[in-house]
What does this fold into?
Amino acid sequence: MLLVTGTSTEVGKTVTTAALAAAALAAERTVAVCKPAQTGVAPGEPGDLAEIARLSGVTRTLELARYPDPLAPDTAARRCGAPLLTLGETAAAVEELDADLVLVEGAGGLLVRLGDFTLLDLALRLDAPVLVVAAAGLGTLNHSELTVRTLRAANVPCAGLVIGSWPGQPDLATECNRHDLPRVTEVGLVGAVPAGAGTWDRARFTAAAAGWFG
It folds into this structure.
C-alpha cells in the first residue's frame, strides 16, 4: 500500500499516481486506486480516478465522496450539506481493496482535511508509507522539507519524492532543485514525470511510465 500526497495542489499527484499504476501493471501486478474525496467535479463527470484509469488502464478504483465546489474536502462537504468522511470508514474501505498494490491519492497537501482526518492520519491508521509529489520550481524546497519533516515527526515512512511535472526546458532554479531536494529533505528523489504527460494517450503513457521511477 502506498499513499500519495503533494506539497500543494496542482503539483502532479494524479498523473504520478497513474504512472505508478501503469508501472505496476506493466510488471504484471494487480492494482487498485482509491481517491477518498473528489472535489470540484459534478456528479456524473469524470474525476481524477477516470483520468488515472484512462492513462494507466487500471480497472479497480474507489471514490468514497464527491463534492461540487473546488475546495478542501471538509469545507466542500459542509458547503453542500454532505456528511464528512470519517477516518474509520475510509481506512476500512481502503483495507478491503485486494490488490498487489493499493494506491491512495490525497487532496492537496498532507494536512488537507479529507473529512474529520488528514492523509497523515490515514497513513498512521493504515501503517502505510507516503510518497510526496513535489513541484519543480521555486518554493519547492521549503514546501517539500515541511512535508517530509511532518511525516518524520509522526514516524510515518516517506517512500521518496517525485517531481510531478518536469519541464522540457528547465530553468536554473529547477535544475538546482533536482539536486537540492534530496539534500534538504534527506529523502531520495525517486522519480520525475515529464510535463504534459497527462495529455498523452494510454499506449504512449504506459510504455514510458516505468522509466520515470528509479
Observations:
- The mean pLDDT is 97.
- Strands lie at 2-6, 31-39, 60-67, 101-109, 130-134, 158-166, 189-194.
